[in-house]
Write a structure and sequence with these properties.
This protein has three domains: 2-85, Arc Repressor Mutant, subunit A; 88-154 and 270-298, D-Maltodextrin-Binding Protein, domain 2; 163-260, D-Maltodextrin-Binding Protein, domain 2 (3-Layer(aba) Sandwich), CATH 3.40.190.290. The protein has nine helices and 14 strands. It has helices at 2-16, 19-26, 30-44, 60-87, 100-117, 169-174, 220-228, 238-246, 275-298; strands spanning 49-51, 56-58, 92-98, 121-127, 141-145, 154-161, 163-167, 189-190, 197-201, 206-209, 233-237, 251-253, 257-258, 262-268. The strands form four sheets. It has a five-stranded mixed sheet with strand order 4-3-5-14-6, covered by helices on one side. The relative contact order is 0.14.
Length: 300
C-alpha cells in the first residue's frame, strides 16, 4: 500500500514538474514528498527524475514508469468509484471543455435533459475553441470538432453534422449566383480559417476552391450573423440555418455541392471512465444522433 501511495505522489510530481507544486496540491510538506519519491526510487532501483534548481524532469525510465503508474492509478480509482456506484446513481462533477457554438446550439437542450435524468451529476463547463490539455488541466472530457491530432487520446464520435453553403438574398442580388465551386472565387466567403474550401458533389466528386473574403473568425455564430447582414457566403450546419432558410433570411447556395460533414468527438485520456463520464457520453451518442436525424427530416 505504501508503494501505491508513493506511485500516486510520483504521478502528481511528474504532472506538475515540481515537488513544491505537487506538495501544495496534495496538502503535504515539500520534505515529505521529496522523501517519499526518494523511497520509491530506492524501491524500483532507478532514478526517476532529473532535478535542478528550476525544474524537475522525468528520466527516460521515469517516463516509462509514469505511463504505467498513471494507468494503474486510473484503474484503482475506477474500481473504487464502481463500488460506490453500486450503492447509488452516478454522481459528482464532470469538468468538460467544449466549443462555444456547438455547446449553445446542440448541447444546451441535451444538458438540461441529462441533468433531469441524473440529478446527482453536476457540470463545470469551459466553453472555448482552444484544445484543453487533458494531461495538465483538470478536465474529464474534451469535445472538439474533427478527429484529434493527438493519437494518444481516446476519441469517441458523438455527432456527424451535415453542412451547407448559404448567403442572404440581399448579398446575392448584388452578385451573380454561383453555379459551380469555382464561381466562389468571385465572392466574399466568410471563413473559420484562412484555408481553401473543400466541397463534395452529391455524386461524390470533390473540389477545392481557394476562396477569400473580408472576415475570418473562430466563431460560427458570428460568421452566420455576418451572412445574415449581407457580408458574404458562409458554411454552416444545415440544422442550424434551417429556420433562416425557411424564413427567407438566408438562401441555399450551390445545391449540388456541400462542405464535408462536421464530426464532433469526445476525447479522454483513457477508456476506463468513471460512471459519471461514461453515462454522459453514452447519453450524447444516443440523443445527438436522434436530434440531428429529426433536424435533417425537418429540412427536407
Amino acid at each position: 500500500m505504501e508503494v501505491f501511495r508513493n506511485m500516486h505522489l510520483f504521478v502528481e510530481v511528474a504532472k506538475a514538474s515540481s515537488f513544491r507544486r505537487a506538495a501544495e496540491a496534495l496538502g503535504l510538506p515539500n520534505s515529505t514528498v521529496s522523501r517519499r519519491i526518494a523511497e520509491l526510487e530506492r524501491d524500483v532501483g532507478l532514478r526517476l527524475f532529473n532535478r535542478s534548481t528550476r525544474r524537475v524532469e522525468l528520466t527516460e525510465g521515469g517516463r516509462l514508469y509514469f505511463d504505467n503508474c498513471k494507468r494503474i492509478i486510473q484503474e484503482a480509482e475506477l474500481a473504487r468509484q464502481e463500488l460506490t456506484d453500486l450503492q447509488s446513481r452516478p454522481s459528482g462533477v464532470i469538468r468538460a471543455s467544449m466549443p462555444v457554438d456547438f455547446s449553445v446550439i446542440y448541447l444546451s437542450p441535451l444538458l438540461a435533459d441529462f441533468s433531469r435524468r441524473y440529478p446527482g451529476i453536476r457540470f463545470d463547463l469551459d466553453l472555448t475553441p482552444n484544445q484543453a490539455d487533458l494531461m495538465a488541466d483538470p478536465v474529464d472530457v474534451v469535445i472538439r470538432m474533427g478527429p484529434p491530432k493527438d493519437q494518444s487520446l481516446i476519441a469517441r464520435q458523438i455527432a456527424r453534422i451535415e453542412t451547407v453553403l448559404v448567403a442572404s438574398p440581399d448579398y446575392l442580388r448584388q452578385r451573380e449566383l454561383p453555379t459551380k465551386p469555382q464561381d466562389l472565387l468571385a465572392h466574399d466567403c466568410l471563413r473559420m480559417k484562412d484555408a481553401p474550401w473543400s466541397l463534395i458533389h452529391r455524386d461524390g466528386r470533390p473540389e477545392t476552391v481557394e476562396v477569400s473574403g473580408p472576415f475570418i473568425a473562430n466563431n460560427r455564430g458570428l460568421l452566420q450573423q455576418l451572412a445574415l447582414a449581407g457580408q458574404g457566403i458562409v458554411q454552416s450546419s444545415k440544422s442550424w440555418v434551417q429556420t433562416d432558410l425557411d424564413g427567407g433570411r438566408l438562401v441555399h447556395v450551390l445545391h449540388d455541392w456541400a462542405p464535408p460533414a462536421i464530426e464532433a468527438f469526445a476525447l479522454t485520456t483513457t477508456r476506463l471512465l468513471p460512471a459519471k463520464v461514461r453515462v454522459f457520453l453514452d447519453f450524447l451518442v444516443e440523443n445527438m444522433a436522434q436530434d440531428l436525424h429529426q433536424s435533417s427530416k425537418v429540412g427536407r
